[in-house]
Specification:
Rossmann fold, 502 residues, 26 strands, 4-stranded parallel beta sheet, 7-stranded mixed beta sheet, GMP Synthetase, Chain A, domain 3
Length: 502
């Protein structure tokens, strides 16, 4: 099965339903099919082997993705916040491209020899009623989407997602045409992230109207939810934290239309989740855990899990508010040790995943699946007796101090409990004697003061001395990706440079 089959199902079964855009003037299911056919013709006429999308959120994104599928061409959305040099290098990797962009001047700098078209012209041409390509289903093993990994610990790679991976995820997690007629979702994650691709496909398949928010601010998000009577939302943890803060500071009533909010993409503190649950008592919350290489979500902590953890007096159940839930149907998740053996429940190890939606493949290095089909997520964590998964952080982030493996998340969870701390990140600083020293990078709440020794004492009381930060740096903000992942390598690099200067 391929993405074109999904498009045909949406067009035939929900052709008259507005599925993309505002309530008035949006794109229906049948209209999307027609636009994709014309877009496919544009791609084919350009002789492109890759469709590169360099722009923000909006209706051009889904039209471009399906146009690439109609032309049986991989779709590559790029991070417009990358430097010209980085973008040029990525585009140069492609044999030939059609660049769909909202900045033609920049496109001429970064890809002077590449065919290009503006988002506005692309949309205008696909809506002009001209002839398009016939939509013919292709091989499910064709490459559907290429996504650049975030590069939080290494240089970005081109993750390969084939049609079979994406459709397996949709068929395994979404019921066709299951959304109510008034259902609408707001999407504010950037188009170059797997969450944007997964949200597009899953909401279309369910029949839920997609409202795009190009630039996120908590105020604009709340205003759009109210104006468009949004029922569902997906946010990254930093967005949820800022929405909670906006509502808490303003004291306004939360939008009454919201039925479900899903969050994921990075670590979130249990305190933010508790505050959100109390602010949105009638809204179902879902924590979704997944990776680019797994076609998005592989585990969820559902609404009932959230409520049970919040209401329970059992510490083990309460702790599940900090978990990512359990594996989706059709997905297997295990915790392995360094030798690849299964570890007992409660034991920290490496999170491994297997299933038909798991790609685990890169253009630059081929498949990373082992001979049994397991993909190493490079996350460390553990699983409790009932299958709830706790992600402790990236394996590359593990601090090895005097031979002891220390998870930054364990220290971070203690630090953010300090009443003066807004957020923090912990990282290992290379040290000749100890292997690593522990550094804590801390952002304080507005108007709060705290010195490093007071914070170190706070941690020492709750954790043993070997897990107490050696260094504490107070920062105005933490460097993050657009999905809220902390760029620890940037923190370590800047810390090292500051000490060299000192």
């Amino acid at each position: 099965m391929d993405l074109l089959t999904l498009l045909e199902m949406v067009s035939s079964g929900m052709g008259d339903r507005t599925l993309i855009g505002r309530r008035t003037g949006g794109i229906t299911g049948s209209r999307l099919r027609q636009m994709a056919a014309v877009g496919g013709s544009i791609v084919s006429d350009a002789g492109a082997s890759t469709v590169v999308y360099l722009g923000g959120n909006g209706p051009a994104f889904p039209v471009a993705l399906f146009s690439a599928a109609v032309a049986h061409t991989p779709f590559l959305p790029l991070n417009y916040r990358l430097s010209d040099e980085q973008l040029s290098e990525i585009i140069a990797r492609q044999d030939s491209s059609l660049l769909i962009t909202d900045d033609l001047d920049r496109a001429s700098r970064i890809a002077p020899a590449t065919s290009r078209i503006s988002l506005a012209d692309f949309l205008a041409q696909t809506t002009a009623g001209q002839e398009g390509l016939d939509i013919v289903a292709g091989d499910a093993d064709e490459i559907a989407v290429l996504l650049m990994t975030s590069g939080t610990t290494a240089a970005p790679k081109s993750a390969v997602l084939r049609h079979s991976h994406l459709t397996s995820y949709i068929l395994g997690s979404v019921e066709y045409a299951s959304a109510e007629d008034d259902a609408a979702t707001i999407v504010s994650v950037p188009p170059y992230h797997i969450a944007a691709v997964a949200n597009l496909l899953s909401n279309l398949y369910a029949g839920r109207r997609i409202v795009y928010l190009d630039q996120f601010t908590p105020r604009q998000w709340l205003d759009t939810v109210i104006e468009e009577e949004v029922t569902n939302a997906m946010v990254v943890p930093t967005m949820l934290s800022r929405i909670v803060r906006e509502l808490s500071d303003s004291g306004e009533t939360v939008p009454g239309t919201l039925r479900a909010i899903s969050y994921g993409g990075a670590k979130i503190t249990a305190g933010v989740v508790r505050d959100a649950l109390r602010l949105f008592p009638e809204t179902g919350f879902v924590n979704a855990y997944g990776l680019t290489e797994t076609s998005s979500t592989i585990a969820v902590l559902g609404p009932e899990d959230h409520r049970a953890a919040l209401a329970s007096q059992d510490p083990a159940v309460q702790a599940r508010l900090g978990s990512v839930g359990r594996a989706l149907p059709g997905v297997e998740i295990e915790i392995h040790d360094e030798l690849g053996s299964l570890v007992p429940s409660g034991t920290t190890g490496y999170i491994m995943v297997r299933g038909p939606q798991v790609a685990g493949e890169y253009l630059e290095g081929g498949s990373r699946l082992d001979k049994s089909g397991w993909f190493p997520t490079k996350d460390r964590g553990h699983m409790d007796d009932e299958g709830f998964i706790f992600v402790e952080g990236r394996a590359d982030d593990t601090i090895i101090r005097g031979g002891e493996n220390i998870a930054p998340a364990e220290i971070e969870d203690v630090i953010v409990d300090h009443p003066s701390v807004l957020e923090c990140a912990v990282a290992g600083i290379p040290d000749e004697e100890w292997g690593h020293r522990i550094a804590a990078f801390v952002v304080l709440k507005a108007g709060m003061e705290l010195d490093s020794e007071e914070l170190r004492d706070f941690v020492r009381v709750r954790l043993r001395s070997s897990k107490t930060p050696d260094f504490v740096a107070f920062l105005p903000e933490l460097p993050e990706t657009q999905t809220g992942k902390i760029l620890r390598r940037v923190l370590v690099s800047e810390f090292a440079q500051a000490h060299v200067r000192a």
